[in-house]
Write a structure and sequence with these properties.
Layout lengths: L1 H23 L1 E5 L2 E5 L11 E3 L10 E2 L1 H5 L10 E4 L4 E6 L2 E7 L6 E7 L10 E8 L3 E6 L3 E3 L5 E2 L8 E9 L2 E2 L4 E5 L5 E2 L1 E6 L3 E3 L4 E8 L6 E6 L2 E3 L5 E4 L7 E7 L5 E2 L3 E2 L3 E2 L1 E3 L2 E2 L1 E6 L3 E3 L4 E8 L6 E6 L2 E3 L5 E4 L7 E7 L5 E2 L3 E2 L3 E2 L1 E3 L13
Parallel strand pairs: 2-3, 4-5, 16-24, 18-27, 28-36, 30-39
Antiparallel strand pairs: 1-2, 5-6, 6-7, 8-9, 9-12, 10-11, 10-13, 13-14, 13-15, 17-19, 19-22, 20-21, 20-23, 23-25, 23-26, 29-31, 31-34, 32-33, 32-35, 35-37, 35-38
């Protein structure tokens, strides 16, 4: 019974308090907005919510910096909070929390500044980050006229002009941090990678050894090489490639992968070398004589017939292994002796001639002595 009476008393008190509260303030809803006040006045035409009162204010959401940073993304623009860590009224805009107004007891402390990349390549994006206890405003300055009031500004497409020291000053309404911290950035120029190749010869005979050599530009300290023959991988990871197996119209090139800092255009492909490979031509020569059995003093002409001699071969006639005659396809003599031996050595100037100089067959002469004809007569007795 006592519990029931207590419940009735509490309910009655609650009713009285609610009646008293709503007697103080009147909620007036109009098409242009909502008004909360004690006078019953309409909302201002420019406001969706118009709050006024003689003795009370509006208390917005309060949270620490840690709690603020844990708000689920995406965070809507203009979200408003009171940061109990920094004692600042903050709103979210342009991807960052900005302080509208702050209360403080002393200037910011523990100022730290750093860059997301301290040695970026040209055209990279770096993020500058500022941290300070109690700071409400930020001032960055740096090379190439850089300035920002964001706590953590980004620098897009940085160039070599952006290399240097970025200084951060953190402050609040109580003052400026006594220490100005810096972030040092070194910007590396982009290095365009290229490669050229050369061959010891581009017109060769079948089976000739050819060495291809690669000359890289901005390959780094340890580039990798991939040689290609008719677009098929060959060779080893080496700046040279040697082969004796080339065929006519084969195409050779090389692809380099650079390990240089800030290399661009890697992997890079070299010029392509098209090979001219001529077939091997065996050189030979044979000789014939106008006669091989003669009488002493008879004129004999020997004629050489070359094979793959080229456009201008040379001939060396030999008589019993001694040089005779001239550089001609024929050799004529009347001075042959019995068992003399004649041959010819051909030196070809044909492209890709093999077996040159070539020696002909050897002709052994039969030379009969001249016989003086005579006759004698006698009379019978």
């Amino acid at each position: 019974m006592a519990k029931k009476n207590l419940f009735i008393i509490v309910r009655s008190i609650t009713y009285v308090l609610l009646t008293f509260y709503f007697s103080l303030f009147t909620f007036n809803l109009f098409s242009q907005g909502i008004a909360i006040n004690a006078t019953g006045g309409e909302a201002n035409n420019s406001a969706m919510l118009d709050v006024s009162g003689p003795s009370q204010g509006v208390l917005i959401n309060r949270m620490t910096t840690t709690e603020r940073n844990a708000i689920t993304t995406p965070i809507p623009e203009s979200l408003l909070i009171f940061n109990t860590t920094t004692k600042c009224l903050e709103f979210y805009v342009n991807g960052d929390w900005q302080a509208i107004s702050c209360g403080c007891t002393n200037a910011p402390t523990a100022v730290t500044a750093f860059a997301s990349l301290t040695s970026p390549c040209e055209n990279s994006t770096i993020m500058l980050t500022g941290i300070a206890s109690g700071a409400t405003s930020w001032s960055w300055t740096g090379p190439n006229g850089f300035a920002s009031t964001l706590q953590s500004p980004a620098i897009s497409n940085i160039t070599t002009a952006g290399a240097g020291v970025y200084s951060l000053t953190a402050s609040n309404i109580c003052g400026t941090a006594t220490a100005v911290n810096t972030a040092t950035v070194t910007v590396n120029s982009n290095l365009t990678v290229s490669i050229g190749i050369a061959a010891t010869a581009t017109t060769i005979c079948t089976g000739t050894s050819v060495t291809f050599t690669a000359t890289p530009t901005n390959g780094g300290t340890s580039p990798s090489y991939q040689w290609k023959l008719n677009n098929t991988d060959i060779g080893t990871n080496s700046p040279t490639y040697t082969t004796t197996s080339l065929a006519n119209s084969d195409k050779v090139k090389c692809v380099i992968t650079s390990n240089a800092t800030c290399a661009t255009g890697s992997p890079a492909t070299s010029n392509e070398i098209t090979m001219t490979v001529n077939p091997n031509l065996p050189a030979s020569v044979s000789i014939a004589a106008t006669a091989t059995t003669i009488c002493s003093g008879t004129s004999v002409t020997f004629t050489a017939t070359p094979t793959n001699g080229g456009s201008s071969p040379s001939y060396q006639w030999k008589l019993n292994n001694a040089d005779v005659g001239t550089n001609a396809t024929t050799y004529t003599t009347t001075s042959l002796a019995n068992t003399d031996k004649v041959k010819c050595v051909l030196t070809s100037n044909a492209t890709c001639a093999t077996g040159s100089p070539a020696t002909s067959n050897e002709i052994t002469m039969t030379v009969n002595p001249n016989l003086t004809a005579s006759v004698s007569i006698a009379a019978s007795p």
